[in-house]
Amino acid sequence: MGFKEGFLWGGATAANQVEGGIFEGGRGLANVDLMPYGQDRYAIGTGEKWINHIDNHYFPSHQAVDFYHHYKEDIALMAEMGFKVFRISIAWTRIFPHGDEESPNEEGLKFYEDVFKECHKYHIEPLVTINHFDCPMYLINKYGGWRDRRMIDCYVKLAKVLLIRYKHFVKYWLTFNEINMILHFPFVAAGLRFKDDENKIQAMITCAHHELVASALVTKLAHEINPQNQIGCMLAAGSYYPATCKPEDYWKAICDNRESYMFIDVQSRGYYPPYALKWIEKNQATIPFMNDDKNLLMENTVDFISFSYYSSRVSSSTPDSSCQTESNIFASVINPYLKSSEWGWQIDPLGLRITMNELYDRYQKPLFIVENGLGAKDIVEEDGTIQDDYRIHYLREHIKAMKDAVDKDGVDLMGYTTWGCIDLISNGTGEMEKRYGFIYVDRDNRGKGTFKRLKKKSFEWYKKVIATNGELL
After folding, report:
1. Which of 19, 125, 178, 211 is an active site residue?
2. Which residues contact 109 (CB under 8 A, 6 or more apart)?
3. How far apart are CA 108 and CA 93, in angstroms?
4. What is the DSSP letter of 145?
5. What are the residues whose beta carbons fall under 8 Å from the beta carbon of 213, sequence distance 6 or more?
6. pTM (predicted TM-score)
7. Domain coordinates in residue numbering, the chain
């Protein structure tokens, strides 16, 4: 059987990790522009510490890999690989520099229109994330980010402008990237900076609820503007295994998985599940329901489930802090049966099949893998080649697992976009040397380099995978 005809092969990026050009085209300042490289990055991302303006830190997103000026070259390279889809996100402050202006910034709108036209020139479908860890600093200073319900109107206004302007260019949309990251990286995910002695769970649940309401409103709007639009939610996924068959470990794994699924349950099923209500109550928090929120959520569920997968995770009822690793910000007990990447992310292709089955069993909606990849140090050889066999092996094994989920388990899968199809800035660490792409960009951790693009060995490999619809791996 294999993958269905029209399967969407491609790659994924995010504006703040590839674009650069933050002072060009009328763009305003966003939260991601104040995420420095170095030891302060994690504390700022979690909302525990912050800086209010550009200072003497090095901020890697300011230039990133300069997609802003190189997009034609980059999209041509993606087309050479045979991409059917390119996942991209919108920088909110390119469209509304403060986030709440009366009229959008035409220069920003024109930039993305040109990008989409370039995609269509090569018959590549854009998959657009409306909000990929992106919040105007003006709104964070004015409202405190997504903790204020007025953010909903600002976001819906942005989305309406995009949905109308790009009606004939884009039909696949994601409302929020990895919405469950609000519980792990809240400044990045929701512009949330904690106040002294406040109930942090309450602050995060308030932000999440406002984003969920905004997502439902935009889902409704997208279907009204163009009935052909397909709207997805997006989850930072990776199933939790119990550390042992001890019942307490198994229960901890259930609870950890539920914490990941909680907001996707709302977007996909239309209501907060009982376990979520109890978890929120246990943490002395409440959901700030207003007006017709419950009906809105129930009547405007998403069309498909998209997710990122890098590794599985392990739960223990008695974790040992000396035996933990982190994968995509999530702490996990180390799995002794798995190998790890250079950054300690455990490699588990079967875990992708397991995660796909759990998601499809849970929601019975089409799935779309919109992030999967290996961050590694690449070496440019003297002859200019980059022999990234380790990346090919990682992706090959994950695509095999993906195929098993489709062929053997009956999972409905729409497409697959590898993360960082071109090298980009790491969201978690701000590093450049943690490379994911099929395309190498000459740039280092301190922002030095020529921006020159080079094809890696994996470039030709992925080209063959796409050409054979995943048959030749």
Report:
1. 178
2. 95, 161, 165
3. 8
4. G
5. 152, 293, 296, 297
6. 0.97
7. 8-239+349-467
DSSP letter at 102? S
Instruction: Please give the backbone phi and psi of residue 147, each rounded to the nearest 5 degrees, phi first.
Output: -70, -15
380-425 per-position pLDDT tens digit: 999 999 999 999 999 999 999 999 999 999 999 999 999 999 999 9
Per the CB < 8 A criterion, the answer to whether 182 and 191 are in contact is no
| Position 292 pLDDT exceeds 70 | yes
Instruction: Tell me the per-residue pLDDT of 248-262, one tens digit each, with 9 for 90 and over.
Output: 999 999 999 999 999
- Burial label for 336, CB within 10 Å (0-12, 13-18, 19+), is exposed
Can you tell me which residue has the tokens 């919040």? 135
Euclidean distance between the first and the last CA atom of the chain, given in angstroms as a whole number: 15
- Which pLDDT band holds residue 321 (cuts at 50, 70, 90)? low
- Please, which pLDDT band fits residue 320 given cuts at 50, 70 and 90? confident
The gap from C-alpha 362 to its chain's centroid, in whole angstroms, comes to 21
Q: Is 371 a catalytic residue?
A: yes
Separation between Cα atoms, residue 41 and residue 57, nearest integer Å: 10
Q: Are 184 and 259 in contact (CB under 8 A)?
A: no
DSSP per-residue string spanning 371-404? E----B-----TTS----HHHHHHHHHHHHHHHH
Alpha carbons 233 and 239: distance in angstroms, whole number: 17
The one catalytic residue among 118, 125, 211, 371: 371
Query: Count of CB atoms within 10 A of residue 157's CB?
Result: 17
Rounded Cα gap, residues 400 and 1, in angstroms: 13
CA distances from residue 11 to 131, 418, 437, 452 in whole angstroms, order as listed: 17, 5, 9, 19
Question: What is residue 131's three-state secondary structure?
Answer: strand
Cβ of 77: how many Cβ atoms within 10 Å? 19
The DSSP symbol for 180 reads G
Query: E strands within 27-171?
Result: 85-89, 125-131
For 226, other C-beta atoms within 10 Å of its C-beta total 17
Nearest to 230 by CA among 188, 280, 174: 174
Determine how many CB atoms are found less than 10 A away from the CB of residue 292. Answer: 11
The fourth-level CATH superfamily of domain 8-239+349-467 is: Glycosidases (3.20.20.80)
Mode of pairing for the β-strands spanning 367-371 and 346-347:
unpaired
Q: Is 178 a catalytic residue?
A: yes
